[in-house]
Amino acid sequence: MNMTSFIKQICSLAIFLTTSLLASNSWALTACGSGSYANLKEFSNSGVTFSVEWSVCDVDTLEMKMMGEGVGWIGVGFSESPSMPNTDIVIGGVNSDGSTYLVDTWASGRSTPSVDISQDYTFVSANESAISTTIEFTRLLNTDDTDDYELDGVARYLLWAIGGSDDISYHGSSLRGISLTAIDFSASPVPLPAGLPLLLTALGLLGVVKRKT
Fold this sequence. Notes:
Elements: H1 3-30, E1 39-45, E2 48-57, E3 61-69, E4 74-79, E5 87-94, E6 100-107, E7 114-115, E8 122-128, E9 132-140, E10 157-162, E11 176-178, H2 196-212
Antiparallel strand pairs: 1-2, 2-3, 3-9, 4-5, 4-10, 5-6, 6-7, 8-9, 10-11
């Protein structure tokens, strides 16, 4: 095999691997229901912990998991400012009989939020243990509902709260928190493709061959 033919084969391999990796990476970003999330935020207040994981799937959908200590309701909210007034909030939990609930609400002040006419959050799963509650749900980044904030490329503060029971009411001062900065929920990092090392090796080999020629 002459050097020209060898270089052509290396170039073909690099192109093939690049195309394959981009295709698989695109799938990873657009497939919902994988059970894995690209982002994680953990919070703590007065010894009470809360975590939120999320990814963007199906191009325009936010997929999120929230987990909080306790067996009452848990909720997350999206806001333009680091305070409760004018907050788009989703609240979920597991009742004592095992039934589940997820409610799309809006808080205009420091009080119990009102239920939205248009319910734009989709329940995925719920689990309650003796010490914690976990809820998974999805929503469009832009629901076209005036009671939901647009999340497509617009950074929002993330608020969280935990209720002492499944009766949705004011959470108190200790069972809540907020992100230090606004978050762009539509910006999910691209997972590192498994075949990337092979591609880099091929490109490196091509560079060595070119220098020798």
